[in-house]
């Protein structure tokens, strides 16, 4: 019964996440001029979209025994997609948090050393690395290295765990570094909507996204099989939380973009709300005012490398 409820929750949350990330992707691809930072958000929304797709298919696979028995290869494919999207999301968010830390700690060096298209290149490399780790990690490792399964596959498992620990350290260090620099730095840095957006996204990821990776690779994958049944409810909870993490990002963007703007008479479009959430300069009006759309467009293009 608990498994059925968890699977139904996964499907519902996954559908909400699909809708939210689809809106973000549509706005960033067709309605907004992309800059260096919005490229990260675009790729992160794509990773969350794939994560929700993989989670929905795998959940429906559990609900339907006939589908599972007829399509083992499809099930394996979507498990790989699910894992790729999970590592891509963590990697991209770690890159975003690292970039924000650099911009806060060494703002002059950060502005001078930005390279053209570095964000797009970094996103492509992180996606490729996530794909490689996901393929070599589990479902296809035995097929690729059947003669040396114990040696190679366990080695790739250690590499995957090491990468997960590295990403966890980066994400965990972002929040104290940002808060310390904003409150205790020698040069006062104003808290913009972009910093709040990244801060909330990282916090949700730490609370909802990382638990599934920790449970899957530390508590289940590396322990004796006798405890798997005991930890299975914890695994289901972590799985639901990971789906919430992929669903929460669009909600964070539109919440931050519309915060203190609800009393304005001007109609708020989703495009303006998302632009405002990614705005990396202080508010022009402390009482809820904001810059017009033309100014928002110019501010986004001025950040482009």
UniProtKB/TrEMBL annotation:
What cellular component terms from Gene Ontology apply here? plasma membrane
Tell me where it resides. Answer: Cell membrane
- G-protein coupled receptors family 1 profile domain mapped to chain residues: 20-253
Membrane-topology descriptor: Multi-pass membrane protein
What keywords does the record list, in alphabetical order?
Cell membrane, G-protein coupled receptor, Membrane, Receptor, Transducer, Transmembrane, Transmembrane helix
Polar residues: bias regions: 292-305
> Which family is annotated?
Belongs to the G-protein coupled receptor 1 family.
Q: What is this protein identified as?
A: Mas-related G-protein coupled receptor member X2-like
């Amino acid at each position: 019964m608990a498994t059925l409820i968890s699977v139904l929750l996964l499907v519902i949350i996954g559908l909400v996440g699909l809708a939210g990330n689809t809106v973000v992707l549509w706005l960033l691809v067709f309605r907004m001029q992309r800059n260096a930072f919005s490229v990260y958000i675009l790729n992160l929304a794509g990773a969350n979209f794939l994560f929700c797709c993989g989670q929905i298919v795998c959940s429906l696979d559990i609900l339907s025994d006939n589908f599972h028995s007829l399509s083992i290869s499809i099930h394996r494919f979507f498990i790989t997609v699910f894992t790729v999207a999970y590592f891509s999301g963590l990697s991209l968010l770690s890159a975003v948090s690292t970039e924000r830390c650099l911009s806060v700690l060494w703002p002059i060096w950060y502005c001078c050393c930005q390279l053209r298209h570095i964000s797009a290149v970094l996103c492509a490399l992180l996606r490729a690395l996530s794909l490689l780790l996901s393929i070599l990690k589990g479902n296809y490792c035995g097929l690729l290295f059947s003669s040396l399964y114990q040696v190679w596959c366990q080695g790739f498992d250690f590499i995957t765990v090491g990468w997960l620990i590295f990403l966890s350290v980066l994400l965990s260090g972002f929040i104290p570094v940002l808060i310390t620099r904003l409150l205790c730095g020698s040069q006062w840095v104003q808290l913009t909507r972009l910093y709040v957006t990244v801060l909330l996204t990282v916090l949700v990821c730490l609370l909802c996204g990382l638990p599934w990776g920790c449970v899957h690779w530390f508590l289940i994958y590396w322990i004796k099989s006798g405890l798997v049944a005991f930890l299975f409810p914890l695994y289901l909870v972590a799985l639901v939380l990971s789906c919430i993490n992929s669903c929460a990002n669009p909600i964070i963007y539109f919440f931050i973009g519309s915060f203190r703007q609800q009393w304005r008479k001007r109609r708020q479009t989703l495009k303006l709300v998302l632009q405002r959430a990614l705005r990396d300069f202080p508010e022009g009006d402390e009482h809820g005012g904001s810059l017009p759309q033309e100014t928002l467009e110019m501010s986004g293009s001025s950040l482009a490398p």
